[in-house]
Amino acid sequence: MSAPVRVLLVDDHAVMRAGFRMILEAQGDITVVGEASTGTEAVASASALHPDVICMDVQMPDMDGLEATRRIVSDPAISAVVVVVTTFDRDDYLFQALHAGASGFLLKNAGPEELVTAVRVAAAGDALLSPAVTRRVIERFAASEPETVAATPTPTVASTPRPALIVELTERETEVLRLLAEAHSNAEIASALFIGEATVKTHVSNVLQKLGARDRVAAVVYAHRHGLVGPGPA
Prior knowledge:
With 234 residues, this protein is of the alpha/beta class. The chain has helices at residues 14-25, 39-49, 65-74, 91-100, 112-124, 131-143, 164-167, 171-181, 186-193, 197-211, 216-225, and strands at 5-10, 30-36, 53-56, 81-86, 104-107. The chain folds into two domains: 5-124, Response regulator (Rossmann fold), CATH 3.40.50.2300; 148-225, Arc Repressor Mutant, subunit A (Orthogonal Bundle), CATH 1.10.10.
């Protein structure tokens, strides 16, 4: 049996942390290794406890969850992935969370099963955002250029040339990246391409390495920004 997924809970409300702990520890494959009530505590706990997944609140005293996420993700000694969990269904939080390096975004009004699934999926490195959220948020996020080149007009999808990094991908890797960018899970990609999930994971790993992407979200953003997939429905 594989080791349980190690989770760090970060929220300034003790009742919320207790609820999350109860839900997660009822699962046989998840263990809560610690709690933190501020961003500063979160950074210290992430370094000391070595969790696999951090469930991170946004609005907290001392240091907010977005800044804590930035510090955790930028620390090469910390391998945890961050799932931002917030009360606020706001696009700006979604954008900032992705910019900070979060691997997923979950609302606190989600059902218990969604929290459990989010932790498991994040730990496995699979797609975390639902197709609806992915199309609404990732495409808008990817359409904007980084702040360092904000003065440069963003080219349309039609006029965007295929970047060299995508050209270096094999035909199958390009297919996998396109399906990732369309919000498909590993299982759905395997079914669409008539290959096994283990093979999909290998292709995803190769794509991330070739693109220099830290996770699947970064690869999806890259694909949308460079026109590998077209705009989704309004």
